[in-house]
Amino acid sequence: MDKNKPVTLFIQCLVDSLYPEVGENMVQVFEKLGISVDIPLDQTCCGQPAFNSGYRREATTAAKRFIEIFESAKIIVCPSGSCVDMVKHQYPGLFKDGSLWQNRAKAVSAKIFELTQYLVDVLGVEDVGATFNGKVTYHDSCHLLRNLGVADQPRKLIANVKDIQLVEMADSEKCCGFGGTFSVKYPDISTAILEEKVDNIIATGADAVVGCDVSCLMNIQGMLNRRNSSIKSLHIAQILAG
Amino acid sequence: MSEIKTEFYKRNAAKAIKDPVLQHALSDVQNRLGPATALAYKNLPEGMALRQKAHEIRQFAINHLDILLETLVKKIRDRGGTVYFARDAADATSYCLKVAKENQIKMVVKGKSMVTEEIGLNKILEANQIEVNETDLGEYIIQLAGETPSHIIAPAIHKTRKEVAQLFTQKLGIPYCEDPPVLTQAARKTLRKKFLAADMGLSGCNLACAETGHITTVSNEGNIRMSTTMPKVHMAFMGMERVVARLEDHDALFRLLSRGAAAQNMAGYVSYIGGPRTEDQLDGPDQFHLVILDNGRSRILADPEFREILLCIRCAACLNVCPAYGKIGGHSYGYPYSGPIGAVITPLFVGVNRAKDLCCGEPLCGACKEACPVDIDLPRMLLGLRAKLAEGDPKWGVTQANSMEKIAFQIWSLIIRNRRVYDLALKTGSLIQKLLPKKNGMITTMPFIFKGWTQSRDIKPLARSSFLTQWKNRENKP
């Protein structure tokens, strides 16, 4: 694989609208590695919120649009495990078996990667030459861990950051309780699950919790802030760009 | 049939979350069994691949259910057993009652069985003056307390040692004592008399085998063996999907069932039952009845989207890892089956609209699929049920659950279709959010449907300008 092959970035909607700095940091990581990036300007959302709530027609609209925008790309990289999972594993099922759209969906799903997966598994990069002064703990996001099998890749990248200390929290693989619209439709259950996650994060004594999905991080940050905690929640791109 | 209280999922969940005793019990059972089961799978000589093999075995059985059931039934009938196919709960319970009346049954002893919970058998027998005695210790405890199981294999996990001690003092007349061996001994003493006096034994069926024509039961207390061999009549209840083709298949499935249920290599007692006592046998019942229950299963079998749920062997491994179950407990699900398996199968049994909160009320984390000994894709089916609720489906009698939500997603799909409209929506959002209260730069109170979020957490406001807008400006610079 050509290590300098340009990549096309799919910026998760939550990164785009709430955490633009994460997008900026991801670009910096690639620039540092001498890889040029292309970012289609008319991209919006992969359709996961609609899909997970059952609205397949609306999700299909989003999927078709995504395919049209990204099918000319050679490699698609995204800073979110759950969006990659949506494109990779759910898109093909939205279309009739053997249809042209399904073939197009499969072609796109074959070339999309989550950021750390791309860096470690495809490029073979485990050290991006970053520095971070502090103690961090890593939260495994559900779809990233279980549907993409990504657990070691971010840990390797973090371990190679200069001056960083990585401590594992209890049950790092347990859900944070976000679950998309679940978090607003079932706030009591979502909160109860999140309380446990936040307790486990606080117990590590870390300065920051690091993850690969801003959706989980947004959820965790929301409760840390409510509890007046000084612990930061950071996307891994924010660490790797440092 | 069992009482259906699925409509109260949210309310019961909220209550359960506030119960510190239950919270302690739930986290204890999950911490104990969840990781132990994962380790037990890993330590299998075949490794995790055995789960896929078991999946194929079960898939084959479900795809050939008609032939397998016919073979099983013929072998049991040839040995002098009676087999009854029950269409629904009422059919199954009236058959049981009929047999009980014919044999003038006054007292039954019962091995743990979820399918008899599903059909609400105990209540019906009791209403007909037949004394019912649950003999599994956990089931016995909740029967004395007048409650229902809160876990598929650990029915009384919601009860503390203190509560059991009080219950036994009150119901069995023993001096107050919190020591588990003493309490177990008291239950044992009482139940021994029941085993000797009962004239009918009832059991479930963990798995049947077509090749040999047996049903198999597993337990750790030996109580099912007592229930099925001591009384003169034994009646077993099985869901019509609980059969596999060959005896060899039992090996893989029971090793996985024991690991999934209790992280054991094998349950303490495994019994193969193929008919009544033969003339040369000293033990065993004079009559053996097998009730094969449909109760909605044929309808599931006919739908390729949900057929996979019939692969389930009810080990409860999914309950032990589910973050939602771990907070709300089994009673919140309002039907005997709880946790992820309940979230999928209960809506299919009782009506998707009626049980909509069960399939929508978990974060879709996927831990259940990973824990399932037969690798059932539970998240896929949860999503399938949500799709039925979103659009409605006459085939399953599902009506659209939330027309406002549908409209919201239609509007959403219009917005995301055009980047300029999308940017305008973000701009509008960032103007509105100026009115919302903030702390440390984060919004503390959100309006409308979003208020659930800020019930317990804050949220970062929309950025002044989106990443793509920033990028566009950067690209346009000379």
What do these coordinates show?
The complex is a heterodimer of chains A (about 240) and B (about 475). By secondary structure, chain A is of the alpha/beta class. Chain A folds into 2 domains: about 5-120, no CATH class; about 130-240, Rossmann fold, CATH 3.40.50. Helices cover about 50% and strands about 15% of the residues of chain A. Chain A has helices at about 15, 20-30, 50, 55-70, 80-95, 100-110, 115-120, 140-145, 150-160, 180-185, 185-205, 215-225, 235-240; strands at about 5-10, 35-40, 75-80, 110-115, 130-140, 160-165, 210, 230-235. In chain A, helix 4 crosses helix 6. The longest helix of chain A has 17 residues, at about 185-205. The model of chain A has no long low-confidence stretch (mean pLDDT about 95). Chain B has about 475 residues and is an alpha/beta fold. Among the domains of chain B are: about 80-300, Rossmann fold (3-Layer(aba) Sandwich); about 405-475, no CATH class. Chain B has 21 helices and 12 strands. Chain B has helices spanning about 10-15, 20-40, 50-65, 65-80, 90-100, 115-120, 120-125, 135-145, 160-170, 180-195, 225-230, 245-260, 295-300, 325-330, 340-350, 355-360, 365-370, 380-390, 405-415, 420-430, 465-475; strands spanning about 80-85, 105-110, 130-135, 200-205, 205-210, 215-220, 235-240, 245, 270-275, 285-295, 440, 440-445. In chain B, the strands form 3 sheets. In chain B, strands 1-10-7-4-2-3 form a 6-stranded parallel sheet, sandwiched between helices. A 4-stranded mixed sheet of chain B has the order 8-5-6-9. In chain B, strand 11 (about 440) and strand 12 form a beta hairpin. In chain B, helix 2 crosses helix 12, helix 3 (about 50-65) packs across helix 12 and helix 9 (about 160-170) crosses helix 10. The relative contact order of chain B is 0.13.
Offer a few descriptive terms.
heterodimer, A: 242 residues, alpha/beta, Rossmann fold, 4-stranded parallel sheet, 13 helices, B: 478 residues, 6-stranded parallel sheet, 12 strands, 48% helix
